[in-house]
Amino acid sequence: MIGLKYTTKDSQGNVVSLPPDEIPSINQFLYWYHRNRDSVSSKRKKDGEHKFALSSRAITGKTECTVSGPSEKVQIDATIADFYLVRENFPGQIIGRPVIFLIKDAYSRIITGMHVTLDNASWNQALLAIKNSAEDKVAFCRRFGVEITEEQWPCHHLPSVLIADNGEVGGKGVESLISELGIMVENCPPYRGDLKGIIEHAFCLAQGALKDILPGYVEKDAGTRGADDYRLKAACDYGTFMKALILCILKYNSSWLDEDTYQRTPEMIRDHVNADPLDLWNYGIRYRSGAMRLVSQEDMYRVLLPQGKAKITERGIEFNGLYYTCQEAVDEEWFATARTKGRYAVTVIYDPTCVDHIYVTTEDDRKLITCSLLERSASFSGITEEEMDRYRDEDRKQKAEYTATMNQKNAEFEQAMEKIRRQISSRKAAPSIIRESIKNIEQNRKAEREELSGAARAKRMQTELNAQKEGATADKDQRYYGEDSPIDQSIDEALEKAGLI
Q1: Where are the domains positioned within the chain?
Q2: How far apart are CA 423 and CA 214, in angstroms?
Q3: Which CATH superfamily is domain 67-292+389-453 in?
Q4: 1-33 pLDDT, tens per residue?
Q5: Alpha helices, DSSP H, located in 212-301
Q6: pLDDT confidence of residue 147
Q7: Torsion on CA atoms 8, 10, 13, 19, rounded to nearest 10
Q8: 83 - beta bridge partners?
């Protein structure tokens, strides 16, 4: 730029640079470069449309705003677990990493179903996860040594709509799901896991809670030079892993969701509904199931308004704890810009008597841009700023009161995890035995699959029964018909000791 724009020519036509005080510095150049650069378009061109939509687009929507109540829409996904497991009866034999299926309710964020398999992710395995979402959780948990009540996991319903990848839940099998069970299936486009982000995040929460407890966790440095072979630490079997995962799900279902994940409505705050999936599920079943509750909209009341500072964020225009949007923000991609370049402040005019709208002032102050509440904040429509402050104070108070309950739940969770840790430690095989079995992972996996299905157990019982029958026949023959029966041998031994023979 300096060579093209900040030079002159002498009398002989040679290019001569301008004096230093007439040339911009590199910092001045970078200032104007970043100010005039379209960071959103640059990011889109660099990453491509798929990656940009996944990681850099504006995130103004909220999933729970699109449903009327619990079980109307659920999201399903599968992932390979971050843990290596061993056979239950043979701790020295590794069976590899299982596949976890989870189903999550879009309204309440509660995990309604789960399935862990040693097979690859497939349509049939997805059906088992859907089955689990509709079955009695008390009996299901009891199978893995976890005793619960109906109130701790009350999910035993089939959803109306299933949101999934165009992978396991795809193909002709979906037609039977629709026609026979009445479940509509919505498949997300390829490479758009963000469209079902609540289920994607569930795997991180579940496995993250276990990585410091269960051995055999696949660390980030796995496979690099000098890193420990995490497979040698494997000691957790399928049943124990299921028990630990169930406990994690129960803990998550009763844990407070942060505000970015779930924002309670004024009615929920007024009725002391905790922002945990279990309470939200029960509240939705009682008040929201089957119909979408529409928040009343009130007319705009325009007066002379005070000014304040709002922030342009990737989630919308944030002001006083609420989020707003406008057509200019959508057209000029304010929210995507805030995500790529960082948040920035703007001056707004607001109405203390109604939080429905705010007005962003332009640089020349000649125009007010009307901004309306986003769907994620629309539940607060029609209230005053003072009421909003009371709701926030009550929200903070209830969160503080909930802390004692969470501490108790955390203590019970840690106690249960400690029992699992001691159980695993007591039966962990030596690294040398595990190292020897690494090359036989597929055989071990096949054997454990037969063990879990009951086939191996049935074979052993049949073998033992056959051996007992053969032994009984042999004993009978020797006692009554054999010349050297056990009775005759005992008599001969007794006579020999007495010196009679």
Answers
A1: 1-28, 67-292+389-453, 307-388, 464-497
A2: 11
A3: Ribonuclease H-like superfamily/Ribonuclease H (3.30.420.10)
A4: 888 888 888 888 888 888 888 888 899 989 988
A5: 238-253, 266-270, 277-283
A6: 93
A7: -30
A8: 217
